[in-house]
Amino acid sequence: MKSSNPDKIPWKNRIVLGLFSGLVYAGLMAAFDYASDLPFHEVKFVFSTLLFGTFMAIATRWMVKKKKNN
User: Which domain of life is it from (predicted)?
Assistant: First the structure.
């Protein structure tokens, strides 16, 4: 069921978009570490993915609510 209401972003879509943006962010940070000859840390990669992904999911929801109120 597809909703045209922008206020209703399904949880599944928010989780997928948050994880995708978190993976992109963590990948870029790992690339910068690699370019600086620093070792790859799995824990840092997972933490960055989850933290940034969660932040992006919350920010997306906030922006949708803000857009609805305008």
Answer: Bacteria
**What 3 state SS string does 3-43 have?**
CCCCCCCCHHHHHHHHHHHHHHHHHHHHHHHHHCCCCCCHH
The pLDDT of residue 9: 72
Handedness of CA 54, 10, 13, 17 (dihedral sign): negative
Measured N-to-C along each axis, helices 11-35 and 42-69 cross at an angle, to the nearest 10 degrees, of 130
Task: Count other C-beta atoms under 10 Å from residue 15's C-beta.
Answer: 13
Distances (CA, A) of 65 to 8, 16, 50, 53, 56: 10, 19, 23, 19, 14
pLDDT, block means (10 residues), the chain with 70 residues: 60 85 93 93 93 87 74
